[in-house]
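Lab notebook: predicted structure, single chain.

Context: the supervisor wants predicted structures on file for every construct in the current expression panel, including those that have not yet been purified. This is the next one on the list. No modifications to the sequence; it matches the entry in the shared construct table.
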Amino acid sequence: MGKIEQIFKKIEDIFNSKHGYIYAYGIIFILCFFIMLGQNFRLEAGNDDVYHTKAVENFGSAYKFMIAQYENTNGRYFTSLVMSFVMDKNIWLWRILNTFVLFGLIYYSFKNIRLFYNFDNKKNLILFFAIFSMFALFTNDIINWSVTWVTGSFNYLWSATSLVISLYYIMRYSINNIKLNFVSFIILIPIVVYACNVEQSALILITIFIISIIYSLFKYRKYDLLYFILFLICLISVFILFTSPSIPIRYEAEIKTWYPMFSELSILEKVIYGFSYTVLYGFILKNYALSMILSFLLYYVLKKQYNNKVNNVLLIVILFYTLIYYIFDRLKVYAIDSTWFYNIVKFSRQVIDTSPSESYFSFILLSFFFIILSYSIFKIKYDILLNYFLMLLFFGAAVMSAFILSFSPTIYDSGARIWFIPSTMYVIGAGIIFAELLKYIDITSIKFKIVFFIICIISIIDIISKVYM
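Prediction complete. Output recorded below exactly as produced.
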């Protein structure tokens, strides 16, 4: 153990030095660059990326392309403008910009949590690397569809990053009454507009803006003018998004192509099948690594606070349930999806696949697990009541931003990218629970250092392997 302790002592000395934060941020930034360098979705014939690289040439300008997209394809006008402009340039411009955007997602997710915890430098850096690890452990297709696919990155990664940056400044004002200077206000305008160009991030941002306004009016008896202008810009952008003439065109096309029986389903059926796919599968199984982390964090924190044996056992059951699925998924044993314990996707898709009725067992089981996780989150005793509400806010945003896809005919067509923005909220929520755990753990112990170091290394290897293999 002597040599191991010496190694950790040298690592600590680096991060505890005057430039410790720079080293930490530099390591993650370099990793982000290598992730973009090894993007899986190349510019190949038939790929959406090729279409967008020719957009300016075919339409005459990025602006004309934006108008054409808005009228015929989707309402994401600002995304189309930025995407066509960047993709008209060299692919290296995308790689460099996307590196900054991915790093910004990790950094501002960390900053959002740090707002509410007065940790020293050591714990802050541990929290920062923990947030990176949670993002790195996203499943292969979520990362490929939303981060390393060029077109997908503009629609999901950039929107998620814009969202967490906007949330940071909104909550910083609401909690600490720190007003915007004019330069920050100008910079935030395109960021807020971008966040409002994807339906999921737009609804989250509007909701948190409204909560911020109500909270600030009660606390300060006023609301900062510049933030209120940003809120109005947000509303206008969302109005433009949801009133696009392309919406009915796309709606009809998607129903015919992907979900012909969509209009025949009752609201209750859409809720059951949609909830099964977007929430139960999306969070508990699709995000199995994050589910394992969350169930363990809840187990550890609640054991310290209550030590309720029944609740502890149930959280361990969820941990092993997702661990077993993780193992079979990695071994490519797809037959497990047909078992009653894991057939939630088959259950959700039984109407669209015109298959015989699937057993309700996985739906009931996963619903029970979801209730246990939700209940456990509610049970945590936070030192500051505000942190409790913030945890519920982020967890609620994660769930609801996924669940709204239940009422869209694109639910099964959009792929794994539908979980990227909800999972970002999920990471921030899990990060808050990890911050609570740091109150109970001795971070100077060699046991903690070894476990945390192994998790970070696994996450780095994991995300690099997803991109390059």
